Amino acid sequence: MKRIAINTGGGDAPGLNAVIRAIVLAATQRGWECVGIRDGYNGLLMPENYPEGGLMTLTPDSVRGITHLGGTILGTTNRGNPLAYPVLGEDGQYHEIDRSDELLDAFAEQKLDALIAIGGDGSLAIAGALAAKGLRVVGVPKTIDNDLDKTVATFGFNTAVYFATECIDRLHTTAASHQRIMVVEVMGRYAGWIALNSGVAGTADAILLPEIPYDINKVAEKIQKRSSRGRDFSIVVVAEGAKPIGGDLTIIGKAVGQAERLGGIGHKVGAELQALTGKETRVVVLGHLLRGGKPTAYDRLLSLRFGAAAVRSLVEGQTGVMVALDPPTVNYVPLADVAGRMKRVPLDCDTILTGRDLGISFGD
Description:
Distance between the termini: 55 Å
Strand content: 15-25%
Structural class: alpha/beta
Mean pLDDT: 94
Largest sheet: 7 strands, mixed
Shape: elongated
Low-confidence stretches: none
Strand order of the largest sheet: 3-2-1-6-7-14-15
Helix content: 25-40%
Oligomer: single chain
Order of helices and strands: EHEHEEEHEHEHEHEHEEEHEHEEH
């Protein structure tokens, strides 16, 4: 092992830079050279787009002082899947083609001995496919949604919940002052971990999750009961992937090479609640605010642990694995056991049970 590559793919998350720093410092101590691939795999697949080079040399000096920074110094993308890469055809339309063999050739040409891929479900599925083709790969789990299987937590989630809770706290005072319903839409495409944890921590009155299809009339009933007790405002937290009973996800579009984009459920819920209750309603969409900013101490520490563990796994001869939090340690699990599996909120989990005991409505 002489030269390893690092990339970050999918949506950004607080803690990415901390992982990069930990990998570089741990690898340098072992005499390895580190390079970063710009924008997922695009630095290798589209090097002509990078005048400064598609690869970035990473040294202890170049990663100094980045642990607390949000985003990723390598850049990222959710439209660079080498297994289904969007290419503009002669017909003027984008088509998806498999460029994975071309990517493996680029790894060999650059004399890269291994890849540490930092990403969520899509990125780790790609990493698993590359491992199956013979590339030495270790995955690091990243997603603010906390929906990756086989790990107790992913970095970025704690920061997102902390920020969402702070926003909900702030909305309580303005909602109470104007006697309004405040609908807070948070990220969470198919798993409602952010909505659940921030909603319970922020003492929301209703929480709508992808795992529990909701009846809007049940939510309106909860709000009206509060009004009858003199509580003339309400806070409703909605995951972007929430859907009504018998309904579908609220999708705003899908581009070639990109997952479907969700959005609009908060405004839909807000309009329906205003019509049903007659109460003035406002909608706040936190969206990408949840991805930005510096990571919490918890996420920084978890990111550093994951990065160092990824290097140790290569020292131990591992490949095709993902580092995973298994308190009190970080272990390794096969990427094949992670791909295609999603950690959704169990309906009998303690946090949901706690929410119900507190009188929070889940719309069911």
